[in-house]
Design goal:
The protein is of the alpha+beta class. It has eleven helices and 18 strands.
Length: about 375
């Protein structure tokens, strides 16, 4: 096995984030560890050390110019002495990399959070919709996601409509021949909840500034090095709220919802913080947008504490400008330049974060939440 040392002195305090990014440099990477001010990267035998080292340095070079989350405010006591991150199977069942199922009383927590966030949307006069799981690749391409964050994409394929190939399917399932008998994908498992909404509204003129809400399953390939992280999930549910109107309308709705979420965190004694942050771009040429997002405060997150100085993002409050109204030709009557914003609540993450702070005894939860 080949071992490489990559100096990260200037970025050592962001080591966890670096490991998350560096794993995407090559599939020849077997493991990544932090050792002092170095990343120790282990490669498969025969891997091109020079080529992989060059890719890693490109990622780190662009990553070095970005800023850590800027804390706007803290909510509750973020320095709890005890946290629980080891949950019994009767509450959380793990099925492998990033796959979990909620059971029993944990499912009641899930329903509780979904209904609270749904209520926030309906108070904002949202129209409630329901969308399919699959998203056409052509739609994903139109969002720009394949350009900015291709690493998360998960594609859906089906067998070729040929009886000989169909007969081979069961035999091919265990080896690499499977890719010889499937079609090029036409759909993806959507990495963001709001994309279906823009597809639904394509070439539409809304009569007035509008709000939409829906419960959507989203899917992200976080990278094989990253599944050990607390709350790092491959698929999960998002209660989404989308705002469409002029900039003032969208910002106002976002601010009103942020205040409601902060009040909820106080009400439930959830230690958390509201931060200015950025998306985890991996493609080197896209990482410049991290700083833009930070400067414009276009992406805010509510992060729940689950350990000493450890936080889990559970809600994202985003401003998009015309990034979606323009390619999807969405208009609002009497508004020359319509823009969008969205809020996403990761429901499984709210459940995990709540239990990390309040434990796994449902009787203790009922002192806080009317389950």
């Amino acid at each position: 096995m080949i071992r490489m040392k990559i100096p990260i002195a200037e970025q050592a305090e962001a080591a966890d984030d670096l490991v998350r990014l560096v794993g995407f440099a090559s599939e020849k990477i077997v493991s990544i560890e932090t050792l002092g001010e170095d990343l120790v990267v282990s490669l498969e035998e025969g891997a091109n050390e020079e080529d992989i080292g060059s890719k890693i340095k490109r990622i780190l070079k662009h990553r070095s110019s970005s800023s850590p989350p800027a804390v706007i405010c803290s909510i509750g006591e973020t320095r709890r002495e005890r946290f629980c991150t080891d949950f019994p199977e009767q509450l959380v069942k793990r099925y492998g990399n990033g796959l979990i199922g909620l059971k029993g009383e944990a499912l009641r927590l899930f329903d509780y959070f979904n209904e609270r966030f749904r209520a926030f949307a309906l108070e904002a006069e949202a129209v409630e919709n329901q969308y399919p799981t699959l998203l056409p690749i052509s739609v994903l391409d139109k969002t720009g996601y394949l350009r900015t964050s291709p690493q998360y994409s998960m594609y859906v394929c089906h067998p070729k409509e040929d009886v000989d190939d169909l007969l081979l399917t069961s035999k091919a399932a265990g080896d690499k021949r499977i890719k010889e008998i499937i079609h090029e994908p036409e759909h993806v498992l959507s990495p963001a909840a709001c994309f279906h909404c823009y597809m639904d509204l394509e070439k539409t003129e809304l009569a007035r500034p509008s709000v939409f809400t829906f419960l959507q399953k989203v899917f992200r390939h976080e990278g094989r090095m990253n599944w050990r992280g607390f709350g790092r999930l491959c698929d999960y549910h998002v209660r989404e709220i989308v705002f469409i109107g002029d900039d003032r309308f969208v910002r106002k709705k976002r601010s009103e919802c942020i205040e409601k979420v902060k009040q909820l965190a106080e009400e439930l004694s959830i230690a958390s913080r509201l931060c200015v942050t950025s998306d985890p771009f991996v493609v080197p040429t896209m990482q410049k947008f991290k700083q833009i997002q930070m400067e414009e405060e276009s992406k805010l997150e509510l992060q729940l504490a689950y350990g000493k100085e450890q936080f889990l993002a559970t809600a994202s409050f985003n401003l998009h400008g015309a990034a979606f109204t323009s390619p999807f030709q969405i208009q609002v009557k009497h508004i020359p330049h319509a823009v969008t914003g969205c809020i996403g609540f990761g429901l499984e993450r709210w459940v995990l974060g709540f239990m990390a702070q309040h434990g796994t005894n449902p009787n203790d939860w009922k002192k806080i939440i009317p389950l």
